[in-house]
Design a protein that fits this description.
The protein has 257 residues and is of the alpha/beta class. It has a 9-stranded mixed sheet with strand order 1-2-3-4-7-8-9-10-11. A two-stranded antiparallel ribbon has the order 5-6. The protein is 37% helix and 20% strand. Helix 2 links the parallel strand 2 and strand 3. The longest helix is centred in the middle third of the chain and has 18 residues.
Length: 257
């Protein structure tokens, strides 16, 4: 079964999607889901991007099955490594996805992160933060959306040129390989920005060259129409790259077919 391993329901601050709605969409598509509700302990508004973990498992535990797994997306910041590790290791998550959303205390969704700064600098800070976190945040199962910054950057061309950031990207990929974690292929930009496929192709081929193997596929859906976005196209890409598409159950990779 194909599994969309990046889904946000109303448990996440920025989603209103009901679990039952997500499951109905998945059933129509014939796919499984892994929930990845948001935790960003460093978010400036401390009332946002966190949730009651015990309530999460109490509310959704009865839905857990071969079609639904319960995970978490943790926003990595070195200042919160210990606290994030405790969250990951103290609860029965199937999957822990680590992502970079905040750099230097600023949500990279915000225009403030780009104001008056050249692309080389902001993207360099983004990748350096990713590197620093991968060195310390050894509790994660996968690195989420390596191209996240391309969604929100305030530049004419937001795509990541591998050659311009080769040293950063190679260090990220080396760390993913060394940690034996997966690299997420996030399908959101495949769907809304098809030109991103060329950039992703370069990065994932380099990942394979460096000894990488595991890839998770996730739509990053916050609404029903996004569930399962481009999942079959993503599977075709992973196959072309010679990589192993997986989902996680009880923190262990399982093959997708």
């Amino acid at each position: 079964m194909l599994v969309d391993s990046h889904i946000h329901t109303e448990v996440s601050t920025d989603s209103k999607m009901k679990l039952e709605e997500a499951l109905a969409c998945a059933d129509k598509l014939g796919i499984g889901l892994t929930l990845t509700e948001h935790v960003d302990l460093g978010y400036p508004d401390k009332t946002m991007f966190n949730f009651d973990y015990d309530d999460y498992f109490a509310r959704y535990g009865d839905y857990r099955s071969d079609k639904l797994r319960l995970g978490v997306e943790i926003g990595m910041e070195t200042a919160y490594t210990d606290a994030n590790r405790k969250i990951a290791e103290s609860h029965p998550f199937d999957y822990v996805l680590g992502s970079i959303h905040i750099v230097d205390g600023i949500d990279i969704y915000q225009e403030e992160f780009y104001r008056g700064r050249p692309k080389q600098l902001t993207y360099g800070r983004y990748f350096q933060s990713m590197i620093d976190c991968l060195k310390s945040d050894t509790y994660i199962d996968a690195l989420g959306h390596i191209d996240y910054i391309s969604r929100y950057a305030r530049y004419d061309n937001t795509e990541i040129d591998y050659n311009a950031f080769r040293d950063y990207i190679d260090e990220v990929l080396h760390l993913v390989v060394e940690r034996e974690i997966a690299l997420e292929l996030n399908t959101r930009r495949l769907y809304v920005a098809p030109q991103s496929a060329y950039m992703l192709d370069t990065i994932f081929r380099r990942y394979e060259e460096l000894g990488g193997s595991l890839v998770t596929i996730g739509s990053d859906a916050h609404k029903t129409e996004a569930v399962g976005w481009s999942i079959k196209d993503a599977m075709a890409l992973v196959d072309r790259w010679g990589l192993r598409p997986v989902y996680y159950e009880n923190r262990r990779p399982r093959d997708m077919k």
